[in-house]
Structures are given as C-alpha cells and as structure tokens.
Amino acid sequence: GATRGTALRTITAAWQRVPVGAALSDAGYRILLAAGDYAEGDYPVYWEDRHGTAANPILIEAADGARSARLAGFLNFFDVDHVVLRGVAVANQGDVFHCEQCRHFAIDDVAMDGDRQAHETIKINQSQYITIENSDIQGSYENAIDFVAVQYATIRNNRIHAADDWCAYVKGGSAYVVVEANEIYDCGTGGFTAGQGTGFEYMTAPWLHYEAYDVRVVNNIIHDTYGAGLGVNGGYNILFAYNTLYRVGARSHLIEVVHGGRSCDGDSAGCQTRHAQGGWGPTQAGDAAPIPNRNVFIYNNLFVNPAGYQSQWQHFTVHGPLDPPAGLHVPSPAHTDDNLRIAGNVIWNGPADHALGVGEDGGCLTANPTCNAAQLLADNAIN
Asked: In angstroms, rounded to a whole number, what is the distance separating the alpha carbons of residues 65 and 86?
C-alpha cells in the first residue's frame, strides 16, 4: 500500500507486486516494513527473478528506524538484480541469508544472527557487485560470511563474529573484493582468509585458477580468534595492510600463507567443462589439487598478544611446495611463497626467541629472494 493505512498484510504480498522476469523500466519498488516481528510465513520462501536496475532499484527496508523490523527465519534470494536490504534484523536458529546469481545486491545496516546454529550466517555464491556494510553478522558453527565465486564485492564497517570456523572467507574464484574497517572477532579456525577450498563445479569462468584474486584486506580490527587472524589459501594478488590484530593464534600461529584446495564434489560434467576451459582442478570425485599462491603482500600490520597469551608454536605458517597430481593443469610444484612479501609489520607475540615458522620443510627458504628468515627479521619489528 501507499500509506500505513493501506499497508499490505505480508511481505510476500508486497514482493508479488514487483514484476517478474524482466528489468524494471518505468519505476523502482520500495517495500517499507513497519516495526514489529515477522514470522517466516510472512515472506517468500524464495525471493527470485526480480530485476531492478540502477535507475529503478528494489528497496526492502525498515520504516521505523534501524533494525525495528525483525524477521525470524531464512532469506533465500536467487537471480535478482539491484536489490537493497536495509535496516532490518534477521534471526534464525540456522542459516540466515543466501544469495545465488545475484547482481548489485546491497546489505546495509542489517543485523543477522544464526544463533551459532547456522552453517553460514551469510552465504553468497556465483554473484557479482555485492556490498555488505554497517551491519552485525554473527552466529555460525562454521562461517559468519562465506563467498564462493563472488566478484566485485565490498565488506566494510561491519561487526563479523561468533563463528566456530573462520569469521569470513572469500573463495572459489572470488575476485576484486575489498574488506575494510570491520571488527572481526570471536571465531575458531581464524579471522579472515582469502581463499580456502572449493568444488571445481561451483566456480565461474574466467576465474578458474586461484581461490581468490585481487582481495584487499585493510584497516580492520581482528581479535580473539583461536586460529590465525589472517590467512591466504590459494590466492593471487592479495594485500593485507594496516590491520590491527590482538589475542589471535593461540592454537598455532598468527598468520598463514598456505595452499588452497580444489576438488570435484560430484558434478563430474561441470568439473570437466571447467577443466576443458583451462581451469585448475580435477574432472572426477576423489582427486584433489593444491592451489598455489602468487603475489601476496602483508604490509604494515600490528599483531599484539598481551602477556599470558601467545601463538602456541610460531609467528607464521608458510607451506612448502607440493606436487599436484598430473593432468589437473595446476603448476608443478605448487608454491605458496611465489613473490610473497612480508614487511613493515610490528609483532609482539610470545618470547623473544619464538619461532618464525618458515624454512626447513616449509616455505620462505633462504634461496627465496622475497621471503626468507633473514629478510623477515630485517624488514619487520618482531618482539
């Protein structure tokens, strides 16, 4: 309805008024949600096939102030364009938000909570031009934010927390992602990682080699993660700069630069198609490929673990080279430290003789001109 007096009774009824299957040409649509609680039956099971434009977007927002409209359940979007979700709170005892084949989707000033029972609080896959800003994302037994094959994205000025695995990662050929000015905390495996491991069939061309491309992680505060505060697992052109990390890495190390993974998870035809396009990965289940790193830059970060708290074993973990199985197109050997550069960082963690965690069977051997033990000690202030 155009006024509160003529408001529709459900969000589903409002969504059904948005034309299906074609780009909006005459006007955009704004769905204003009055303050109060909305049950899962009040909104669509699938929000799909709606196509706003830059001139005529689709806005879904709280009418009475930030997070005054409270939705209980799971929001599942598919094949939508130019949608903004603003000012609402969404809570579920499970997954909270999913977006597949979404383009130009913005989440702004939203609270999402999976009650530590979500597989992912936010899961976005095969999508482009995604923005998550000014929001509170929490409550997963795995990841608070999980991107697979997402390009052109911004994650800025959020609180991302309360997840048992990584707080957030972008993987599966995700590219051109900015992660800036967030508070990332209270997670298990780690804080944020560029890359990880992906089923080959879920990736999109042409981003079929590395797990993550051109990811910039800058000016974040990352704290209270049992595992590494930051990681690169199969990344290309990755920058970590001007981040502050404290109480991180008690399980093992502060930061990791390791291989990503690539598997075929059952869709052999999809894996074969991507392999034929020159992608790195197997064509059938059972095979797996280590994904290397290249051009990783870790500059001017501050790592502080206060007295009584330290990484258990070392400052860094950098994996040594691996030989992938033949025929998967992966470079052999697969290195994690090809043009890895770590400089300008201040690290206060454990005793003065705490192990660096490089060399021996790992990466950053003496012969590596850009990353080796002597260089790390010379170019960083460590303890």
From this structure: 10
Banded pLDDT at 179 (limits 50, 70, 90): very high
Helix residue ranges per DSSP H, 170-258: none
CATH code, residues 1-164: 2.160.20.10
First to last CA, the chain: 63
Q: What phi, psi does 40 have (nearest 5°)?
A: -60, -30
pTM more than 0.90:
yes
Q: Which runs of consecutive H residues, i.e. helices, occur in the chain?
A: 11-16, 268-276, 373-379
Domain ranges of the chain: 1-164, 170-383
Q: With bands split at pLDDT 50, 70 and 90, how would you rate the model's confidence at 104?
A: very high
Instruction: For residue 164, give the nearest of 195, 120, 133, 197 by alpha carbon.
Output: 120
Cα–Cα distance, 380 to 383 (Å, whole number): 10
Return the number of other C-beta atoms located less than 10 Å from residue 206's C-beta: 11
CB 162, CB 136: distance < 8 Å: no
